[in-house]
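Running this now, will post back.
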Amino acid sequence: MRTLLLLILFSTSALAERPFRTDDPYQTRLYGWEVFGGVEIKSGSYGGIKNRNDIDFNAGFDYGITEKSEIGLSGDLYRVQDPGQEGIGDAVLHYKHRMTEATPSVPDIAIDLQLKFPTGSKSNGLGSGKADFGLISLFGWKSELWTTNLRLGYIYTLSDLEKDRIELGVSSRYEASENVRFLGELSVDKDRREVGLGAARLIAPGTWLDLMLGAGLSDVVPDVSVRFGVTSTL
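Update: finished.
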């Protein structure tokens, strides 16, 4: 019960559908839940620290409040840094509304509003200690086997340790079979650049197990990362 309470209170990323960092414009069904959680292991020299290793335990949920919108909460349940500290990271609250349905000439489009709560300890290097506000545009293209998403966002931060930024992400999912998906992604902003390749497998009705391998293309991103976890719709 205590673990479930932590999942609800500090459930990241409303920023993305697991295991992507790039969210899609699609919402969970009306009065339906999507819950997710996993682990990310990061290694390399990044963020001004050499030979660094981090482990993040993260989780979250989305809930459909209308036929075209959802709310969600996500965050780092616990982070272990070497060298560094350990503890709870930041949490993100979001509201996503689907603006248009796809036509032959127009993609699916949604707007995602995000608020980051500085629940992570600034003194321990687990967060900036200030809130962030995000305005995200999401675009989606679907075919029989492919789903491709584009994320374009502006993040305004109150932190003196970070700067406002524009974020861009492209993700794609290929339905190899009814039970297997192949995944690919490129995400960038002013300083961060990362690529990822992975796969997901259906392990129960509505429940997917995922694995994503990431490679950093800039010195503020881990050289390598491994993300794995589970997503379930209820």
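The domain at 2-233 is CATH 2.40.160.40 (Porin). More later if anyone needs it.
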